[in-house]
Design a protein that fits this description.
By secondary structure, the chain is mainly β. The chain contains one helix and 27 strands.
Protein backbone atom coordinates (compact mmCIF):
# COMPACT_ATOMS: atom_id res chain seq x y z
CA UNK A 1 0.00 0.00 0.00
CA UNK A 2 1.33 3.41 -0.87
CA UNK A 3 0.03 6.65 0.50
CA UNK A 4 1.25 10.08 -0.46
CA UNK A 5 0.07 13.56 0.34
CA UNK A 6 1.75 16.63 -1.16
CA UNK A 7 1.46 20.07 0.34
CA UNK A 8 2.44 22.61 -2.31
CA UNK A 9 4.33 25.75 -1.33
CA UNK A 10 2.15 28.85 -1.01
CA UNK A 11 3.86 30.38 -4.06
CA UNK A 12 4.28 28.82 -7.48
CA UNK A 13 6.04 30.07 -10.56
CA UNK A 14 4.12 31.25 -13.60
CA UNK A 15 5.04 28.03 -15.36
CA UNK A 16 3.49 25.95 -12.59
CA UNK A 17 0.38 28.06 -12.77
CA UNK A 18 0.03 27.48 -16.51
CA UNK A 19 0.50 23.74 -16.00
CA UNK A 20 -2.23 23.74 -13.38
CA UNK A 21 -4.65 25.55 -15.71
CA UNK A 22 -3.87 23.05 -18.47
CA UNK A 23 -4.66 20.23 -16.04
CA UNK A 24 -8.12 21.67 -15.44
CA UNK A 25 -9.09 21.63 -19.11
CA UNK A 26 -7.47 18.21 -19.69
CA UNK A 27 -9.47 16.74 -16.81
CA UNK A 28 -12.66 18.31 -18.14
CA UNK A 29 -12.13 16.81 -21.57
CA UNK A 30 -11.43 13.41 -20.04
CA UNK A 31 -14.60 13.55 -18.01
CA UNK A 32 -16.70 14.36 -21.05
CA UNK A 33 -15.28 11.38 -22.92
CA UNK A 34 -15.41 8.87 -20.07
CA UNK A 35 -18.11 6.42 -19.12
CA UNK A 36 -18.83 6.52 -15.41
CA UNK A 37 -19.66 3.41 -13.44
CA UNK A 38 -20.45 4.05 -9.80
CA UNK A 39 -19.52 1.73 -6.98
CA UNK A 40 -22.56 0.03 -5.51
CA UNK A 41 -23.77 1.95 -2.46
CA UNK A 42 -25.86 -0.13 -0.11
CA UNK A 43 -28.98 1.73 1.05
CA UNK A 44 -28.22 4.54 -1.40
CA UNK A 45 -30.62 7.45 -1.00
CA UNK A 46 -31.91 6.33 2.38
CA UNK A 47 -31.28 8.08 5.72
CA UNK A 48 -28.72 5.36 6.50
CA UNK A 49 -26.48 6.60 3.70
CA UNK A 50 -25.19 9.69 5.50
CA UNK A 51 -25.46 13.44 4.98
CA UNK A 52 -23.68 16.15 3.00
CA UNK A 53 -24.50 19.66 4.25
CA UNK A 54 -22.96 22.73 2.59
CA UNK A 55 -23.39 26.50 2.94
CA UNK A 56 -21.31 29.02 0.99
CA UNK A 57 -20.82 32.78 0.87
CA UNK A 58 -18.56 34.44 -1.72
CA UNK A 59 -17.14 33.48 -5.07
CA UNK A 60 -15.29 30.53 -6.59
CA UNK A 61 -15.73 28.43 -3.45
CA UNK A 62 -15.94 24.77 -4.46
CA UNK A 63 -17.23 21.75 -2.55
CA UNK A 64 -17.41 18.54 -4.57
CA UNK A 65 -16.29 14.94 -4.92
CA UNK A 66 -16.80 14.20 -1.21
CA UNK A 67 -18.13 10.85 -0.06
CA UNK A 68 -20.18 9.88 3.02
CA UNK A 69 -21.56 6.35 2.69
CA UNK A 70 -22.47 3.65 5.16
CA UNK A 71 -21.46 0.67 3.00
CA UNK A 72 -19.82 0.51 -0.44
CA UNK A 73 -19.31 -2.81 -2.22
CA UNK A 74 -17.56 -3.63 -5.48
CA UNK A 75 -17.15 -7.25 -6.60
CA UNK A 76 -15.18 -8.25 -9.71
CA UNK A 77 -15.99 -5.03 -11.57
CA UNK A 78 -14.16 -1.90 -12.68
CA UNK A 79 -15.78 1.17 -11.18
CA UNK A 80 -14.66 4.56 -12.49
CA UNK A 81 -15.79 7.78 -10.87
CA UNK A 82 -14.46 11.06 -12.27
CA UNK A 83 -15.50 14.37 -10.71
CA UNK A 84 -14.38 17.70 -12.16
CA UNK A 85 -15.44 20.91 -10.43
CA UNK A 86 -14.01 24.02 -12.10
CA UNK A 87 -14.66 27.75 -12.13
CA UNK A 88 -12.50 29.67 -14.56
CA UNK A 89 -14.83 32.61 -15.18
CA UNK A 90 -16.24 33.53 -11.76
CA UNK A 91 -19.69 32.02 -12.33
CA UNK A 92 -19.75 30.41 -8.87
CA UNK A 93 -21.02 33.23 -6.68
CA UNK A 94 -23.29 32.36 -3.78
CA UNK A 95 -24.83 34.19 -0.87
CA UNK A 96 -25.73 32.41 2.33
CA UNK A 97 -29.22 32.76 3.70
CA UNK A 98 -27.86 33.05 7.23
CA UNK A 99 -27.15 36.53 8.60
CA UNK A 100 -23.53 36.90 9.66
CA UNK A 101 -22.15 34.20 7.40
CA UNK A 102 -22.63 30.63 6.17
CA UNK A 103 -23.69 27.86 8.54
CA UNK A 104 -23.58 24.15 7.73
CA UNK A 105 -25.34 22.38 10.58
CA UNK A 106 -25.78 18.63 10.60
CA UNK A 107 -29.02 16.94 11.44
CA UNK A 108 -29.54 13.34 12.51
CA UNK A 109 -28.02 10.65 10.31
CA UNK A 110 -27.78 6.89 10.75
CA UNK A 111 -24.54 7.07 8.83
CA UNK A 112 -21.56 9.45 8.37
CA UNK A 113 -21.85 13.20 7.97
CA UNK A 114 -19.91 15.92 6.12
CA UNK A 115 -20.66 19.56 7.00
CA UNK A 116 -18.93 22.35 5.06
CA UNK A 117 -19.15 26.13 5.47
CA UNK A 118 -17.13 28.45 3.19
CA UNK A 119 -16.85 32.26 3.25
CA UNK A 120 -14.57 34.30 0.99
CA UNK A 121 -13.11 33.20 -2.33
CA UNK A 122 -11.34 30.24 -3.88
CA UNK A 123 -11.77 28.02 -0.84
CA UNK A 124 -11.81 24.35 -1.86
CA UNK A 125 -13.21 21.33 -0.03
CA UNK A 126 -12.93 18.40 -2.42
CA UNK A 127 -12.17 14.69 -2.65
CA UNK A 128 -12.62 13.92 1.04
CA UNK A 129 -14.15 10.67 2.24
CA UNK A 130 -15.97 9.57 5.38
CA UNK A 131 -17.18 6.11 4.35
CA UNK A 132 -17.86 3.61 7.11
CA UNK A 133 -17.24 0.34 5.24
CA UNK A 134 -15.74 -0.16 1.77
CA UNK A 135 -15.36 -3.68 0.36
CA UNK A 136 -13.55 -4.35 -2.93
CA UNK A 137 -13.17 -7.99 -3.98
CA UNK A 138 -11.33 -8.91 -7.20
CA UNK A 139 -12.32 -5.55 -8.65
CA UNK A 140 -10.94 -2.10 -9.41
CA UNK A 141 -12.10 1.19 -7.95
CA UNK A 142 -10.79 4.33 -9.65
CA UNK A 143 -11.81 7.67 -8.13
CA UNK A 144 -10.44 10.95 -9.41
CA UNK A 145 -11.49 14.40 -8.19
CA UNK A 146 -10.23 17.63 -9.76
CA UNK A 147 -11.20 20.94 -8.15
CA UNK A 148 -9.97 24.18 -9.73
CA UNK A 149 -10.77 27.84 -9.16
CA UNK A 150 -9.06 30.28 -11.54
CA UNK A 151 -9.40 34.08 -11.59
CA UNK A 152 -7.91 36.00 -14.51
CA UNK A 153 -9.88 39.22 -15.03
CA UNK A 154 -8.91 42.68 -13.89
CA UNK A 155 -11.07 43.84 -11.00
CA UNK A 156 -11.23 46.25 -8.11
CA UNK A 157 -11.63 44.66 -4.70
CA UNK A 158 -13.91 46.76 -2.55
CA UNK A 159 -12.83 45.39 0.81
CA UNK A 160 -15.64 45.04 3.33
CA UNK A 161 -16.70 42.18 5.58
CA UNK A 162 -16.49 38.44 5.04
CA UNK A 163 -18.89 36.59 7.30
CA UNK A 164 -18.17 33.92 9.85
CA UNK A 165 -18.17 30.33 8.58
CA UNK A 166 -19.59 27.71 10.95
CA UNK A 167 -19.60 23.95 10.37
CA UNK A 168 -21.36 22.23 13.25
CA UNK A 169 -21.90 18.50 13.46
CA UNK A 170 -25.26 16.98 14.32
CA UNK A 171 -25.96 13.45 15.51
CA UNK A 172 -24.48 10.66 13.40
CA UNK A 173 -23.93 6.92 13.57
CA UNK A 174 -20.65 7.17 11.73
CA UNK A 175 -17.78 9.60 11.49
CA UNK A 176 -18.06 13.36 10.91
CA UNK A 177 -16.06 15.76 8.76
CA UNK A 178 -16.76 19.34 9.83
CA UNK A 179 -14.84 21.95 7.80
CA UNK A 180 -15.11 25.74 8.03
CA UNK A 181 -13.10 28.06 5.76
CA UNK A 182 -12.96 31.86 5.96
CA UNK A 183 -10.69 33.91 3.72
CA UNK A 184 -8.98 33.08 0.44
CA UNK A 185 -7.40 30.00 -1.13
CA UNK A 186 -7.83 27.69 1.84
CA UNK A 187 -7.72 24.04 0.77
CA UNK A 188 -9.06 20.94 2.48
CA UNK A 189 -8.70 18.13 -0.05
CA UNK A 190 -8.11 14.41 -0.37
CA UNK A 191 -8.42 13.62 3.34
CA UNK A 192 -9.71 10.28 4.55
CA UNK A 193 -11.80 9.54 7.63
CA UNK A 194 -12.90 6.13 6.39
CA UNK A 195 -13.50 3.57 9.13
CA UNK A 196 -12.80 0.22 7.44
CA UNK A 197 -11.50 -0.57 3.94
CA UNK A 198 -11.22 -4.21 2.83
CA UNK A 199 -9.38 -4.65 -0.45
CA UNK A 200 -9.20 -8.36 -1.34
CA UNK A 201 -7.06 -9.10 -4.42
CA UNK A 202 -8.26 -5.89 -6.05
CA UNK A 203 -7.06 -2.34 -6.77
CA UNK A 204 -8.20 0.92 -5.22
CA UNK A 205 -6.91 4.22 -6.59
CA UNK A 206 -7.97 7.61 -5.22
CA UNK A 207 -6.49 10.73 -6.84
CA UNK A 208 -7.33 14.30 -5.80
CA UNK A 209 -6.11 17.55 -7.38
CA UNK A 210 -7.00 20.92 -5.83
CA UNK A 211 -5.90 24.12 -7.57
CA UNK A 212 -6.61 27.73 -6.57
CA UNK A 213 -5.11 30.37 -8.90
CA UNK A 214 -5.59 34.13 -8.88
CA UNK A 215 -3.85 35.76 -11.84
CA UNK A 216 -6.00 38.88 -11.82
CA UNK A 217 -4.74 42.42 -11.31
CA UNK A 218 -6.74 43.82 -8.44
CA UNK A 219 -6.37 46.68 -6.03
CA UNK A 220 -8.27 46.88 -2.78
CA UNK A 221 -9.83 50.25 -2.03
CA UNK A 222 -10.38 49.35 1.63
CA UNK A 223 -9.16 46.70 4.09
CA UNK A 224 -11.11 43.48 4.30
CA UNK A 225 -12.47 42.30 7.63
CA UNK A 226 -13.17 38.61 8.11
CA UNK A 227 -15.17 36.65 10.60
CA UNK A 228 -13.64 33.56 12.18
CA UNK A 229 -14.11 29.98 11.05
CA UNK A 230 -15.60 27.55 13.54
CA UNK A 231 -15.77 23.75 13.20
CA UNK A 232 -17.18 21.63 15.99
CA UNK A 233 -18.46 18.08 16.31
CA UNK A 234 -21.88 17.10 17.54
CA UNK A 235 -22.89 13.72 18.89
CA UNK A 236 -20.86 11.24 16.89
CA UNK A 237 -20.35 7.48 17.06
CA UNK A 238 -17.02 7.26 15.30
CA UNK A 239 -14.18 9.60 14.43
CA UNK A 240 -14.75 13.34 14.28
CA UNK A 241 -12.50 15.53 12.12
CA UNK A 242 -12.98 19.25 12.78
CA UNK A 243 -11.00 21.74 10.68
CA UNK A 244 -11.20 25.54 10.81
CA UNK A 245 -9.11 27.54 8.32
CA UNK A 246 -8.76 31.33 8.69
CA UNK A 247 -6.89 33.73 6.43
CA UNK A 248 -5.10 32.75 3.22
CA UNK A 249 -3.56 29.67 1.69
CA UNK A 250 -4.03 27.26 4.58
CA UNK A 251 -3.74 23.69 3.36
CA UNK A 252 -4.81 20.38 4.85
CA UNK A 253 -4.37 17.77 2.13
CA UNK A 254 -3.84 14.04 1.78
CA UNK A 255 -4.33 12.94 5.38
CA UNK A 256 -4.75 9.13 5.47
CA UNK A 257 -6.76 9.28 8.70
CA UNK A 258 -6.86 6.67 11.42
CA UNK A 259 -9.13 4.12 9.75
CA UNK A 260 -8.35 0.44 9.34
CA UNK A 261 -7.06 -0.76 5.96
CA UNK A 262 -6.88 -4.47 5.13
CA UNK A 263 -4.61 -4.13 2.08
CA UNK A 264 -4.83 -7.61 0.59
CA UNK A 265 -4.51 -5.94 -2.81
CA UNK A 266 -3.13 -2.68 -4.19
CA UNK A 267 -4.21 0.62 -2.64
CA UNK A 268 -2.96 3.97 -3.89
CA UNK A 269 -3.85 7.45 -2.67
CA UNK A 270 -2.37 10.58 -4.17
CA UNK A 271 -3.33 14.16 -3.32
CA UNK A 272 -1.83 17.36 -4.69
CA UNK A 273 -2.76 20.87 -3.59
CA UNK A 274 -1.61 24.00 -5.43
CA UNK A 275 -2.22 27.66 -4.57
CA UNK A 276 -0.95 30.68 -6.51
CA UNK A 277 -1.85 34.33 -5.95
CA UNK A 278 -0.41 36.95 -8.29
CA UNK A 279 -3.19 39.46 -7.75
CA UNK A 280 -2.41 43.00 -6.72
CA UNK A 281 -4.82 42.85 -3.79
CA UNK A 282 -3.33 43.77 -0.48
CA UNK A 283 -2.76 40.99 2.04
Amino acid sequence: MRQRGRHAAPRRSGQKARQAVALVFTAGAFLAASQETAVADILDGSPLNGQLNTDQEGQENLDCGNSAHLVRINVAKTANQETVCADTDGHTHRRSGHPGGPQAIGGTALGPQINTAQAGEQNLNCGNSADVITVNVLGTINEQTTCAAVARDHADAQGGFTGRAQALGGTSLGQQLNTAQTGKQNLYCGNSSDTLTINLLGTIRKYTRCIALDKSSRHESAPEHRGHALADAGQVVGVGQNTAQNGRQNQTCGSPGSGIDLPLGETKRDTRCTVYDASGAAR
